[in-house]
Design goal:
Distance between the termini: 48 Å
Number of strands: 14
Radius of gyration: 20 Å
Strand order of the largest sheet: 1-2-3-4-5-8-11-14
Number of helices: 11
Oligomer: single chain
Shape: globular
Number of domains: 1
CATH class: Alpha Beta
Bound molecules: 2-acetamido-2-deoxy-beta-D-glucopyranose
Order of helices and strands: HEHEHEHHEHEEEHEHHEEHEHEEE
Largest sheet: 8 strands, parallel, barrel
CATH topology: TIM Barrel
Length: 339
């Protein structure tokens, strides 16, 4: 009996700890793209993240003014390595050390780096076979600087899959099979997730006759369930994520988590498929889906950290939908509320 109190304290501590882990994992992130000539200063942008209670930020390259602005912000940072740097860093441990020494080490005390993404959508492509080596060299540099809570990964687009439907048939294309097997192997050994870009919008917009809008927007209802073997899908987002999970299983890497490095819906540029309302509904539903931690039918309950694309409408991107993915206008007013 006299041990009861300490048992209860242990339980309480564990519950509190779990709650805290929960919070730090289930939070929403937003990609901070800078392809605009009318965007606010990085300092103002980081303040906007904090005001908007966005806890995670993904940046595509290590810009010093952005890293400076992140100091002391407590935002959890995913930092991208530029695609142009991959071959050098794959070729030389020293180049990887330099990269980490330049872009992480000077900020490590007051910037909360969580992930480094080695390349953005380079698999498939001519750099695909350099990714694993570059990841490994970067990981070695990170570990030798005592930064090993930072995980090293890469970002792959939907077209890394040769088959993506139904989800249970998901498979990497022959072209990327070797590269993805190597990448998944290093992810597995370093306990890092694979980052994937998932855009139900593009699937829907290219095939609106066959894909119900509600299915693409995660407006789940019984009319829009698709059956895949023993699993039922009530939204396209889950189906797209699980196609990757199946593809990983097929290379014996089903234990590697997938996280979402980008998802979103443009608010303009291709009416009627794009609208402020569709964008609002999609992002609100994804946010709820992630917060609920229901996982996907193939990975029930599994964490699914997600970044929305993007913080701002970016006027230097190609005209049309690409300029209209922002949650905010460049003047920092919201395009729509994200509840
Ligand atoms: C990763 O780096 C370590 C240390 O240099 C090396 O022993 C290992 O073979 C490398 N692995 C890959 C997949 O390159």
């Amino acid at each position: 009996m006299r041990y009861m109190p300490s048992t209860w304290i242990t339980v309480l501590v564990l519950v509190l700890l779990a709650h805290q882990i929960n919070i730090s994992f289930a939070c929403i992130g937003v990609c901070y793209g800078l392809n605009g000539d009318n965007l606010p200063s990085p300092k103002d942008v980081i303040e906007l993240y904090k005001r908007s209670q966005i806890q995670r930020i993904r940046i595509f390259e290590p810009l010093p003014e952005v890293l400076e602005a992140l100091r002391g912000s407590n935002l959890l940072v995913t930092l991208g390595m530029r695609n142009e740097d991959i071959t050098n860093i794959a070729a030389s441990q020293e180049a990887a050390n330099d990269w980490v020494n330049t872009h992480l080490v000077p900020y490590k005390i007051d910037v909360a780096f969580r992930y480094v993404t080695v390349g953005n959508e380079v698999i498939p492509g001519p750099l695909a076979n350099y990714v694993t080596k570059a990841m490994n060299n970067t990981w070695n540099a990170i570990v030798s600087n005592g930064l090993d809570r930072v995980r090293v990964t890469t970002v792959v687009p939907a077209n890394a899959l040769g088959v993506s439907y139904p989800p249970s048939a998901g498979a990497f294309s022959d072209e990327v099979l070797g590269a993805m097997t190597d990448v998944a192997t290093i992810l597995y050994y370093t306990h890092a997730p694979l980052m994937i870009n998932v855009y139900p919008y593009f699937a829907y917009a290219s095939n609106p006759e066959e894909i119900p809008l509600d299915y693409a927007l995660l407006n789940s209802n019984l009319q829009t369930v698709t059956v895949d073997g023993e699993l039922n899908y009530n939204n396209l987002f889950d189906a797209m994520v699980d196609a990757f999970n199946t593809a990983l299983e097929k290379i014996n890497m089903g234990d590697v988590y997938v996280f979402i490095s980008e998802t979103g819906w443009p608010s303009a540029g291709n009416e009627p498929y794009t609208s402020i309302e569709n964008a609002r509904v999609y992002n609100t539903n994804v946010k709820k889906h992630i917060h609920d931690q229901v996982g996907t039918p193939r990975r029930p309950g599994r964490m699914l950290d997600t970044f929305f694309f993007a913080m701002f409408n970016e006027n230097l991107k190609p005209a049309g939908v690409e300029q209209n993915f922002g949650l905010f206008y460049p003047d920092m007013s919201p395009v729509y509320p994200l509840d």
